[in-house]
Each structure stands twice: as C-alpha cells, then as structure tokens.
Design brief:
CATH class of the largest domain: Mainly Alpha
Shape: elongated
C-alpha cells in the first residue's frame, strides 16, 4: 500500500444538527464523517442528482462540484495541483465554509432556472438547507467570510470553464437503416400501441472532456460480436436471451441473478455512495489508512468523478461510432442470418433497455473508471465494500405481475469482484451483450488510470 502524505488538519467545527437532518433526507445511508463526504451525499443523491438528468449528466455535475471543492481547499492550503487557476485564499479561510460554498454555488449554477416543479423545489431546498446548516455551524468572522469567498471563486472558475462544453445538446437526431446489427429505438414495455424511446446522448460523444485529450482518445476497437454469424455473437445472444429474459428473471425474483440485476442500477452504480461507504467503514478494510483529511477526500472524489465523466464521453463516442444493436432488437429480429440463434418476437429484457446503442456498456464503463481510481489512490485492489439498496419495483410482461420494491444487500471483497459483478448485472438485466460489458469495463479502467496519472497531482 502506498503511503499517503499526511498534513495537519485545520480546526473544523462540528456540523450543526440541522445538517445531519438535511443529509439524512437526501441520503438514508449517510454517516457523518466530514464536510467533504456530507456534501458529496447532498450533491450525488436524491433529490438533487436526478434534477440534472441521466448518468452522463450527473457525472458531469459531480465532477464540476468535486473539482470546485478540491480547488477551493487548495487555494487555502496548496497541496495538490488545482484544475482551475485560482488566486490564493487567506490562510485563515474556513475549509468547511469553502466546501459548502463551492457545492452550493456550482449546484445552483447548473440547475435550469426556467422550469419549475416539485422536483426542482425539493432539490433547491436540500441544497439551501444543507448550506444554511453548514454555515450556522461555523463561527462568524473573517475566516468564515474568506472561506465562502474561496468556495465561490473555485465554483465560478469551473462554471466558466464548462459553460460551452457541449453538454447543452446531449440528444442529437438519430437515423439508422433497418439492417442486421444496427441499433434501433428500443420499445417500451406494456405500451399499446407499442411506443419507442427516442435515442439519447449521441451529443455526449462530442462533449469536451475534463482531462482526456480528445473524445476518441480511448475509443475501443470493434467487438467480436459484430460478426452476427460468429461464435462470440452466438454465445452472447443465447446467454442474454435466457439469463436476461423478463419472464425468466420474473419467475425467479429472489435468485442471485435477479438481485444482481436490480442492485446495480442506482445501487452499486452510485459510486459516490460506494466511496462514502468505504471511508465510513474502516473496519471492513483494516489494512487501509482511511483517516483522510479533507484535502485527500476532496482529491479522491474529484479524481473519481472526473474519471466517470470522461469515461462517459469515451463510451458514447464508441457507442455512436459502431451503433451496434441491443439484445431486445436482436432477439426480436425475424432472421439475423445466424442459424444458431432463435428469434422471439415477444421477448422483453428484465430491466428497461436504455435508449442508446449497446457497445460498450455505460454502467461497467463507470465502474471501471471508479475502481481504477480507487485502486491507484489506495494502492491495492483488495478493498471491501457493500451495503443494502432499496431497489424499485420492476414492471413485467403478462402473465407476470410487477415485482415489488425490495431491499437487496451485496458485499464485495475486492474492487475486481465488484467490477465483474457489474458486468453480470447488465447481462442479467437483459439490456447488454456480455462482450459490450467487458469492453466497457476495460475502457473505463483505461480512462480512470489516465485521469489519476494526469490530474490533481501532489505538489513537489
């Protein structure tokens, strides 16, 4: 295990009781550890995170928030290279005030001011309540004011840097011929007449990365399964047709396969929660030094979220380069020319199929990015984690009834084990061929390694 540079921790006053209440509302599994982790729970959990859109949009927001936190702290006490160029803050600036102000300013700056509704109201209330609670816990004076100023300066810098990064147009018009192997809009279960989801996030392939040199820097090569008459395609087709079938999984709701499929979307895939769980449970990893100071925590969260966001750019660049079809299209196709595959026009994936091409997988891509950062930050793959996730209900095709919501617990002895299960999850969910999942994990790993090696390095 590599040693982590230690720094004297500045005085950080206890958080106000109201902040605990606010954070409990947005993150039921929250454990008070530090202002960095507490605010990470606010930014990356309901009701705040969903207001920004799907996983790629949330990854961009989380990266911006964590960069602002990291840079604000390092403007007070420089320990790592910052992402943005900032003026130095007075040394008496309150780190807690800086962390809160950075979060508050970035999140407010990214919430669309036009649409109103209960979701927006709840998100703003969570952000503002947490901000008020943090500031109430800090004694008034120059240190508090200077800390707020440092957080705002860091937030404004990253907001300005990303103002025209291409994220405003994630969904571009998509058209594709009705040909074997080509992605088509995916159907929505139990709609009559059958409706289709408009393809999404093609524009994300054009978004400016945070650290990668270009969107295509880590584009992976074509898959073996692109040969729809070949052995890999046949193997992956048969596996997902059986293991990822809504009827098969729905008939075995308490099987490991069904639990794994349901745990990962919103559970294991919420890697910010995973990192918080790891930091808050040192007993699971006694071999690790988890007594990180705020600067180290901020760097870890920033690197992890930058890696996930850049990996999302890479994955959509690759998806829309090849536009390979999803299992739900392939299995319903009347004749793909492969005598070893058996079509089924009534087949449904166990979980809803996302509205963009199959290859490679976005969930495993994000998992690869995060595990790569964690592995290098702590110097080991042997990091244990696990928790209970309240999985939502699952609609199923007739004659099955919907599966009710369920609490699912998963535990892992290593990052490698968790990454492998994320691959299984998307196959058991029925929305991905296995090769697309394994290649997504590889792509995310390469991006995570690159981000760790090239961003927010220690000052020497």
């Amino acid at each position: 295990m590599r040693s982590i540079a230690r720094h004297p921790q500045p005085y950080r006053p206890p958080l106000h009781r109201a902040l605990a209440t606010a954070l409990f509302i947005v993150a039921p599994a929250w454990v008070q550890a530090s202002t960095v982790t507490d605010w990470n729970a606010v930014a990356s959990s309901a009701p705040v995170a969903p207001i920004f859109g799907g996983p790629p949009q949330q990854a961009r927001v989380n990266a911006m928030v964590q960069i602002a936190v990291h840079d604000a702290l390092n403007s007070i006490d420089p320990r790592y290279h910052t992402y943005s160029i900032l003026p130095g803050a007075p040394p008496d600036a309150s780190p807690d005030a800086a962390i809160a102000a950075a979060n508050h300013r970035v999140l407010h700056g990214l919430i669309d001011p036009k649409p109103d509704g209960s979701a927006k109201t709840a998100a703003l209330a969570a952000i503002d309540n947490a901000y008020a609670a943090t500031l109430a816990s800090i004694p008034d004076g120059n240190g508090k004011t200077h800390g707020i100023d440092a957080g705002i300066a860091a937030a404004d810098a990253i907001l300005a840097d990303r103002a025209n990064d291409g994220s405003a147009t994630p969904n571009l018009p998509y058209a594709a011929p009705l040909e074997i192997g080509v992605y088509q809009p995916t159907p929505i279960m139990n709609t009559d007449p059958q409706a289709y989801v408009v393809p999404a996030n093609e524009g994300w392939a054009l978004m400016q990365p945070f650290v990668m040199l270009s969107q295509s820097q880590f584009r992976i090569g074509p898959g073996n399964l692109f040969d729809v008459s070949g052995q890999v395609y046949t193997r992956d087709y048969r596996e997902v047709q059986e293991a990822g079938s809504a009827l098969v999984r729905g008939a075995a709701p308490d099987s490991d396969e069904s639990d794994i499929a349901r745990f990962w979307p919103g559970g294991g895939a919420n890697w910010n929660r995973v990192i918080r769980e790891i930091l808050a449970a040192p007993g699971k990893n006694p071999q690790l030094d988890l007594d990180l100071d705020p600067w180290q925590e901020a760097r870890l969260f920033a690197l992890a979220n930058i890696a996930e966001s850049d990996a999302a750019v890479a994955v959509f660049d690759t998806k829309y380069t090849y536009t390979f079809w999803r299992p739900i299209t392939a299995i319903r196709w009347q004749d793909d020319g492969n005598p070893a595959t058996t079509p089924d026009a009534s087949w449904w994936s166990f979980l809803a199929t996302p509205p963009y091409p199959d290859y490679p997988c976005g969930l495993t891509n994000a998992s690869g990015a995060h595990t790569a950062v964690l592995r290098r930050f702590f110097g080991t793959d042997d990091i244990a984690w696990g928790f209970t996730f309240d999985a939502p209900s699952v609609p199923l095709p007739a004659p099955l009834s919907p599966l009710p919501a369920k609490s699912i617990t998963r535990d892992f002895a290593s990052l490698r084990q968790a990454l492998a299960e994320s691959v299984d999850a998307r196959v058991f969910g029925g929305m991905h061929f296995r090769e697309g999942c394994t290649r997504g994990a590889l792509q995310g790993t390469l991006v995570g390694r690159y981000v760790f090696q090239n961003a927010l390095r220690p000052l020497r």
